[in-house]
Design a protein that fits this description.
13 helices; two-stranded antiparallel ribbon; 405 residues; alpha+beta; six-stranded mixed beta barrel
Length: 405
C-alpha cells in the first residue's frame, strides 16, 4: 500500500514547481552517477581482459617452479607422470637467466629464456611474431627470437640480420679462479621478433634450451621451470591440485593468477578505488533527494494528516517517504545504467571512441559489462537512497500533525 502512495506522490502535480525541478535534478544526478560507474568499471574490465590476454600469450596456464633458488631438479620419471596427469595437454622445459647481449656498439641486459620444441604449444609467443620466424636452432647453432624492444635496443632487424649477437650469461657454481669462466661467451643469430606487451618486448630473448643449459652449466635434469598447457574445457585449478599432490612440497605450482598476483591485485584495487570516488556523485545526488523529500513532506502535510486520522502509524508514513526516495533513485539508476550499457554495447561493436596515439595494441577503448558490477552499482544506489530518505522520512513520521476541521 505504501508503495502505491509513493508512486502517486511522484506522479501527482505539485503546487510548487520547485519540487518537480528538485525531484528531477535528483533523478538526473543519480542517472549520471550510475552511468559513470557502469562506464568506468566497464572500461577497467575491458583493459583487464586485454592485459590478461596479452599476458596469457607469454605466461603458461600452470608453472612448476622451485620453492627457493633459481632452478629445480626434476627426473624423467616425474616428467612422465606430469604428462600422464589427466587434463595435461603438453609441457615445456625452460631454463632462464639474466644475460648481457652485445651487437657491435649496441648492448643491453635481458632475460634470456631457453625453451624446447613444445614451447609453441604451451604459450602463444609464436602467434605474436611480427618479423622473421619462430626458430630455436640447435645447441651448437642457436637461433633467437627477440622482443621488439630488445631488437630496437640492439639495433638489429631479425628478419634480415646475418650477424650473430654475443651473449654473456653467468655460469652456475664456477670453481675456476679465472673470472672469465664465470661469464662464458656465446653467440646467437636473430631469427624472429615478437611483440606482446612492453614488459616482455623490452626484456626477453627466447632461444634454444640446450644452448642455455650449456652456457649456465645446468645438469641434465635441472631446469628453471616446467610450463604446462591444459587441455581445453579442463579445470586448471583441479589439475593444479593434482600436480601439487603428485610433486609434493618440493616444487611451487602456480596458475596464471599466482604468477602475476601483484598485477591483478593492483588492477582490482584501482577499479574499486575509482568506484569509491565515483560514489561521491551519488552522495551529492543524495543531498538533492533530501531536499526533494523535505519539500514533498511540506507539500503533502495535509495528506499525511488525513492518513494519520485514518489510522496510519509512524511506521507507515516513514515507509511511504522511504519508498518515494527509493522510487526516485530507481528511476535514475535504471535510466543511467541502461544508457551506459547501450553505450558500451555500441562501443564494442563500432569502436567509435578511439585511444589517443597509435602505440597501443588496439586503437579503441575496450569495454566489458559484467553483471556483478551492475548488481553492486544497483545495491550501492539503493543503500544511498535509503540513507538519504531516512532523514526526512523519520522527521516527517515523528512530527505531530493536527487535523483541523
Amino acid at each position: 500500500m505504501y508503495k502505491l502512495f509513493a508512486l502517486r506522490y511522484f506522479k501527482a502535480k505539485k503546487s510548487t514547481n520547485a519540487i518537480n525541478i528538485i525531484s528531477w535534478v535528483s533523478v538526473t544526478a543519480i542517472a549520471v552517477g550510475a552511468a559513470a560507474m557502469v562506464l568506468v568499471l566497464s572500461v577497467y574490465n575491458g583493459f583487464e581482459d586485454l592485459v590478461k590476454s596479452l599476458y596469457s600469450s607469454f605466461y603458461p596456464e600452470i608453472k612448476v617452479a622451485p620453492v627457493s633458488g633459481k632452478t629445480l631438479f626434476i627426473s624423467d620419471e616425474q616428467l612422465k607422470k606430469i604428462a600422464a596427469t589427466p587434463g595435461v595437454a603438453v609441457y615445456s622445459k625452460v631454463a632462464e637467466e639474466k644475460a648481457a647481449v652485445i651487437n657491435g656498439d649496441y648492448q643491453t641486459i635481458v632475460s634470456i629464456k631457453g625453451v624446447d620444441e613444445n614451447y609453441t604449444k604451451v604459450t602463444g609467443v609464436a602467434d605474436k611474431i611480427i618479423r622473421g620466424k619462430f626458430d630455436l636452432g640447435t645447441a651448437d647453432e642457436p637461433l633467437a627470437i627477440l622482443g621488439s624492444g630488445v631488437e630496437g635496443l640492439l639495433g638489429v632487424n631479425s628478419a634480415t640480420s646475418i650477424y650473430q649477437l654475443t651473449t654473456y650469461i653467468p655460469r652456475k657454481a664456477v670453481e675456476s679462479k679465472d673470472p672469465r669462466a664465470s661469464l662464458p661467451q656465446g653467440n646467437i643469430l636473430p631469427a624472429g621478433t615478437f611483440a606482446i606487451q612492453q614488459d616482455f618486448d623490452n626484456k626477453y630473448i627466447i632461444t634454444n634450451l640446450a644452448f642455455i643449459k650449456k652456457q649456465i652449466g645446468l645438469q641434465d635434469d635441472e631446469y628453471s621451470a616446467i610450463e604446462i598447457k591444459v587441455k581445453p574445457e579442463e579445470s586448471i585449478s583441479s589439475i593444479k591440485k593434482e600436480l601439487i599432490s603428485l610433486l609434493g612440497n618440493a616444487y611451487k605450482v602456480e596458475d596464471r593468477y599466482e604468477q602475476n598476483r601483484t598485477l591483478y591485485n593492483v588492477m582490482q584495487l584501482e577499479k574499486w578505488v575509482i568506484f569509491g570516488i565515483l560514489s561521491l556523485i551519488l552522495i551529492i545526488a543524495a543531498f538533492n533527494m533530501i531536499g526533494a523529500l523535505t519539500m514533498l513532506v511540506l507539500e503533502k502535510k495535509k495528506d499525511i494528516q488525513v492518513l494519520q486520522a485514518m489510522g496510519a502509524d509512524k511506521s507507515f508514513i516513514k515507509k511511504v517517504l522511504l519508498s518515494e526516495g527509493v522510487l526516485l533513485a530507481s528511476i535514475g539508476a535504471f535510466s543511467g545504467m541502461l544508457l551506459a550499457v547501450i553505450f558500451c554495447l555500441l562501443q564494442q561493436q563500432f569502436h567509435f571512441i578511439p585511444l589517443a596515439g597509435n602505440s597501443f595494441v588496439i586503437d579503441y577503448y575496450p569495454v566489458k559489462v559484467l553483471p556483478l558490477d551492475l548488481v553492486v552499482i544497483a545495491l550501492t544506489i539503493f543503500i544511498v537512497a535509503i540513507l538519504a530518505s531516512w532523514i526526512p522520512a523519520t522527521k516527517a513520521s515523528n512530527q505531530p500533525f493536527e487535523l483541523k476541521v
